[in-house]
Amino acid sequence: MKRYIRNMNMLSKEENEKLKDFKVCVVGCGGLGGYIIEMLGRLGIGHITAVDGDVFDETNLNRQVLSDVENLGKSKAMIAQRRMKLVNPLIEIVPIDNRITEENAEKILCGHHLIIDAIDNIYIRFLLQDTASKLNIPMIHGAIAGWYGQVATIFPGDKTLEKIYPQKDVKGLENEIGNPSFTPALIASIQVSEALKILLNKGEILRHKLLYIDLLEHNYMIMEL
């Protein structure tokens, strides 16, 4: 199909065909999640579940690719669906206009091949990790704050977040140092590349590792966990 011809050579025709059969759940449709959904949809991932119980406000306009002045006050998940209908109507995107909680996490996440963490709440990240492990689904963690970002791939039973965050009930650094437009785009692209490698079983992934990026000083480090 001409739509995906620029994927070719990097991926085989058979690998491109496989993408339509995968189901990926993106939890969070804001700074990270908007870019993640955009890239997954353009790749041709056949089924994307977009989870976010929040609406766009003016503070999102500096960095969230799905936000614009006409979307203020509107559901992030529903806008994600509308955007993907314009970008790639061949894929299915299911919006869930709800926050992930202990009560609904298992129901929302089950049935997917992969879960992508695009949220800014450490406690909920642990809930995602625990639920993904219970459901035997791999998860890709991503976080951003100012000039800095990180990515890790977490397989069931790894408990990687315990090695990254010593406490569950603290706020992330983004509350202190903010987020610009460029950090979410970079970290989201790395999360999507990890997703593609996991789904197609290609290359080396960031399992038992943390990729830490400091854009201010251009330090890129992979730390063994």
UniProtKB/TrEMBL annotation:
The keyword DNA repair does not apply. The keyword Amino-acid biosynthesis does not apply. Residues 5-223 form the THIF-type NAD/FAD binding fold domain. One of its GO terms (molecular function) is ubiquitin-like modifier activating enzyme activity. Keywords: Nucleotidyltransferase, Transferase. It comes from the Bacteria. Pfam families: ThiF (PF00899). This is Molybdopterin or thiamine biosynthesis adenylyltransferase. GO terms for biological process: cyclic threonylcarbamoyladenosine biosynthetic process.
